[in-house]
Amino acid sequence: MVKSKEYDIVEVCWIDAEEFGEVGWNDIKSQLAHAKKPCPTMRTVGYLVYDGKEHLSLLSTIGDKECSTLEKIPRAFIKSVTVVSPTPPNPVK
Asked: For residue 92, is it within any domain?
């Protein structure tokens, strides 16, 4: 049985990859102007279920037998990781 208290809750600040424009043809002037804008900065909060060399994996919801979708964020995109709620030393069972 998996318990949510087994994982730190973290906030990950990361730079997202972005695609801009509509399907089909786009105005080149608009595309070139958008090309200079920075990629969006995102913030994600969740249970840190995997902390690997290439990426982190987070779940927003954990139950005894079910969970939310898994969100994987590449390390190269990450600006910071802040522990919001650390795993207690003796998780409540």
From this structure: no
For residue 43, the enclosing domain spans 4-19+26-85
Q: What is the CATH number of the domain that holds 32?
A: 2.30.30
Report yes or no on 11 lying in a domain.
yes
- Is the separation of the CB atoms in 60 and 38 below 8 Å? no
Closest C-alpha among 79, 91, 7, 12 to residue 45: 12
Quick check: 9 and 56 in contact, CB under 8 A?
no
> Are 5 and 91 within 8 A, CB to CB?
yes
**Structure pTM?**
0.80
Buried b (16+ CB within 10 A) or exposed e, 61-88: ebeeeeeeeeeebeeebeeebeeeeeee
pLDDT tens track for 46-56: 999 999 999 99
